[in-house]
From TrEMBL:
Its main location: membrane. It comes from Lujinxingia vulgaris. Residues 55-284 form the ABC transmembrane type-2 domain. One of its GO terms (cellular component) is ATP-binding cassette (ABC) transporter complex. Pfam families: ABC2_membrane (PF01061). This is Transport permease protein. The chain crosses the membrane at residues 53-74, 94-118, 139-164, 170-196, 203-224, 259-281. Belongs to the ABC-2 integral membrane protein family.
């Protein structure tokens, strides 16, 4: 074969390789564009959820703050004069973490549960599920919005309590970590209940008969050392106790239970309920009926 013939053979091969590289680059750019659009869609859904509760902030933010401040005034100052201190901490300071968690747990659950359930009742959930968003992005948007609302309310209560004379700033990072993990856990639970629930009674069932009792019995207003046997031991099986005491350690430096146990438990709960919520979304159970 002559030199000119070899050049003729190599030329098409070089052209095919260039075309192949160009095609691969085009595919990569298309994937990048698709990912950017997915992220934009997830951000838009998250922003929509933020606007949903922020446009009625008087009901969704201010109202729970006022309720917790009434608890603070009634219990903090009326009982505070009698109890004085619990575990060496002024009762007013001891009470703040419990009130923060009481509002945090309730509002993180309510935000994700009611928002998702309403979209399911109205039938708009189907429109969201056919978007290019991944199930992780879809779930993340709802959970993140619930966490923002809960953290906002909890932080406002924390600051207002400080302005009213409390000093709950022992370890702010620890308190914020426990607040965020707790908000996420109950936001995941809210998503699960919203998917499985068939009417608003089902949505209200969990907070009325489980979340609120567990929260009030989880050391919000007292230390379990104040309980008689066997109730002090029974309280150790209440998961909310570990959440409340994790935040209490971050705010005032005392805890009825080891802080690391609360952190591990929250990570496990987030993994379990996050996994269940994701599985329910992927299977479409009770969403596309």
């Amino acid at each position: 074969m002559s030199v000119s013939d070899e050049r003729d053979v190599k030329a098409p091969e070089g052209g095919r390789e260039a075309a192949r590289q160009a095609a691969l680059e085009k595919i990569a750019r298309s994937r990048d564009v698709a990912q950017e659009r997915q992220l934009l869609g997830a951000w838009t859904l998250f922003y929509k959820e933020i606007l949903r509760f922020w446009t009625i902030a008087g009901q969704t933010v201010i109202s729970p703050v006022i309720t917790m401040m009434l608890y603070f005034l009634v219990f903090g100052y009326s009982l505070g004069d009698r109890l004085q201190e619990i575990r060496g901490v002024p009762y007013v300071d001891f009470l703040v973490p419990g009130l923060v968690m009481l509002a945090l747990i309730t509002n993180s659950y309510i935000n994700s549960a009611f928002s998702l359930f309403i979209t399911k009742v109205h039938g708009t959930i189907v429109d969201l599920l056919v978007t290019p968003l991944t199930y992780v992005q879809f779930l993340g948007a709802y959970v993140a919005a619930a966490v923002v609302r809960a953290m906002l309310i909890g932080s406002i209560i924390w600051i207002v309590a400080w302005l009213m004379g409390a000093s709950p700033f022992y370890s702010v990072p620890v308190a914020l970590i426990f607040m965020a993990l707790t908000s996420m856990a109950f936001a995941f639970i809210g998503v699960v209940v919203a998917i499985l629930g068939e009417d608003f009674d089902h949505i209200n069932l969990l907070p009325n008969f489980l979340i609120t009792p567990l929260t009030f019995l989880g050391g919000v207003f007292y230390s379990i050392e104040m309980l008689p046997a066997p109730w002090d031991t029974v309280s150790l099986f209440n998961p909310v106790l570990y959440m409340v005491n994790g935040v209490r350690y971050g705010m005032v430096g005392v805890s009825d239970v080891p802080v690391w146990q609360g952190a591990v438990m929250l990570l496990v709960l987030n993994a379990i309920f996050g996994g269940v919520a994701l599985w329910l979304l992927k299977t479409g159970k009770k969403l596309r009926d």
